[in-house]
Design a protein that fits this description.
Layout: H1 4-13, H2 17-24, H3 32-42, H4 46-51, H5 66-79, H6 84-97, H7 99-108
């Protein structure tokens, strides 16, 4: 049966076989939603799918100072909260408390 692979992909993703065929022939560009669906299905990044490159891994450095580790963990938890008000409050408190250091750090960034 012709286009069996496209039919299976269409069934897995919910993207129509005709759209998949048009993507394959480069007749149209996929929507952002389609890109995300395909990335999730194949477990690849959008950078890889769109540009053929893997995103740079973030460099993680171990924190040896226990007090600094605690502060970092608390700040990370606050900023990863689902509560947007809490994230906003955290940013304001951080910027207010570390006003001078924050301004200097922002100036040094390229």
């Amino acid at each position: 049966m012709p286009n069996t692979t496209l039919q299976l992909l269409a069934e897995k993703t919910g993207i129509s076989r005709s759209n998949l065929n048009r993507y394959e022939k480069d007749e149209v560009k996929p929507s952002a939603d389609s890109i995300v669906i395909l990335c999730d299905l194949y477990n690849v990044s959008t950078d890889w799918l769109l540009r053929g490159i893997e995103p740079q891994a973030q460099k993680v450095e171990a924190i040896s100072d226990p007090d600094l580790k605690d502060m970092t963990d608390i700040l990370k938890n606050l900023m990863e909260s689902d509560d947007s008000d809490l994230r906003g409050w955290t940013k304001i408190q951080f910027k207010t408390t570390f006003k001078e250091y924050y301004a200097t750090h922002k100036e040094k960034k390229p």
